Amino acid sequence: MKQIKCPNCGKETTWKDNPYRPFCSEKCKLADLSKWLNEEYTLFSEEPVVEEEADSRS
Ligand SMILES: [Zn+2]
Prior knowledge:
Number of helices: 1
Strand content: 5-15%
Number of strands: 2
CATH topology: Erythroid Transcription Factor GATA-1, Chain A
Radius of gyration: 18 Å
Oligomer: single chain
Low-confidence stretches: none
Bound molecules: zinc ion
Largest sheet: 2 strands, antiparallel
CATH architecture: 2-Layer Sandwich
Order of helices and strands: EEH
């Protein structure tokens, strides 16, 4: 059986029959997701996206 390591806590878990893969549990899956969403949100709120192509054509 394939063994993987949970990206959130590093605990060894199995790939097969694991609804939360690649995480070991629902808790780790949600923790990683919320972390990712928070980083995304912080990125957008601190630095507005600059449209680089705005002045490239004249
Ligand atoms: Zn975990």
